[in-house]
């Protein structure tokens, strides 16, 4: 999965980046990180397309089940008409047709329920994978990035204040 590879790449950048001594801070190339984030955004639609495929597949399965149901019903009706040739056969054929209808309806109902269970399990697995992906990578990645940017800004502000103090002291020494 391309998104996971891109997240691994960000993790590798963070792991191999230059660190500031005694601060635990690192320096990363913002453009490189932002480019990877853009690629992740491009790749996410594939996951969404996969969900759409599952939805379409569900609809196709339901339509097939309905067609099969109608075919079974039509076959049962045809079979019942053939059996109506004489009185004794008519009674038996009606009983048989009723039985076939009942079985066909039960089979259709069971097929529908099995289809719903199958689609639900696919959607549940997909939802679980998306939650795992989000929990494992995105939240941590963005929290780490935010912390890193905050730390870099704090270090830069501290360095600027230090430079200003040195400049002020130099100005005082020059005036004395």
UniProtKB/TrEMBL annotation:
This is ATPase. It comes from the Bacteria. Keywords: Coiled coil. Residues 48-114 form a coiled coil. The keyword Coiled coil applies. It comes from Aminipila luticellarii. The keyword Coiled coil applies.
